[in-house]
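Researcher: Structure prediction, please.
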Amino acid sequence: MSQETASWLNSMTLIGFTEQRGHAWHYRASEQVGEPNHYPAAVPVADVRRRLFDWKVVEGDVRSTGVTMSTDGVSTFTVSDADRKAMLRPPGALGAEDEGAILGIFKTGYAGHDYEQWLLGQVATILDDDLQIGSAGLLKGGAVAWVSVEVPESITTPQGVVFRPHLLATTSFDGSLATTFKRVVQNVVCDNTHAVAMGESGQRVRVRHSRHSQLRLADAREALAMVHTIADDFAAEVARLTAVKVSDGDWARFLEELAPVPADSGRAKTIALSRRESLTRLWNHDTRVAPWRGTAWGAVQAVSTYTHHDGVIRGMGRAERNMLRAVQGATEALDRDSTERILAIAG
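Model: Predicted structure follows.
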């Protein structure tokens, strides 16, 4: 099963509240075998468990077989590493044709966090009429998983920014990230993901994969202030950035920092000019950015939209790359960098 295919995204991700935000941009009805992966309202907890987390990652020994050649012929040998172990997706975990896979190799002290227990079990205890599962999924061949808790209704700021607050719970079995619970926001008009406090490091709880790791829900509730506080914080951030005016000269200096153009002709110059052209098109004409042209929020939104939808990607599909950036914190870092740059120029 390729982690890059449309069939994976349309079967191994579940997208809720489509009446509020529409279909995900990787939506393909023809790739949804048996039942759709899009839900008009919340994604039922039972469906997340049945469709995504109805399997367990198992531990295995680390062994390697080598071949030697000599005058006496060819012989094989096997070496075992007692200090390491493999985390395995067992055959059949993700369907009848799934042959299984090695998700990661770690020191013996590593303790994996079971998806059903650490993601679904933790978030299910906070769900009520105002907090429901908005999306869930598996990435990188099942090595990364997430569950997103959301409020049912989208929110519109006085500046016209429509967004959805999330509590994003995620973990991995490939070593790419610790189990993390953090506050994020989805910008509905462009499907971008933003950090709640873009100029800061954001609010999150991380739990390392160790034998002594544990998470009490009260810890996450106190540290994150939960989903109900996200709306006010993000709306205040939008108001702050829309109040900062960005002139044409400021925008030109912003582009110079983001995409400096080399003096010599060549591929680097072509890439820089292309990036500037795309960002300026978004700034001047695109409905996802242009309504806030002339403000710091518009500048941050231009960079975010370009990275999500236009930027060059390699090694995976765009939808998967965007989700990985959200769970691993890259979108947060991007927003923070864009905010700091434009405020230094115009603020």
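Model: The chain has a mean pLDDT of 84.
Researcher: Thanks, that helps.
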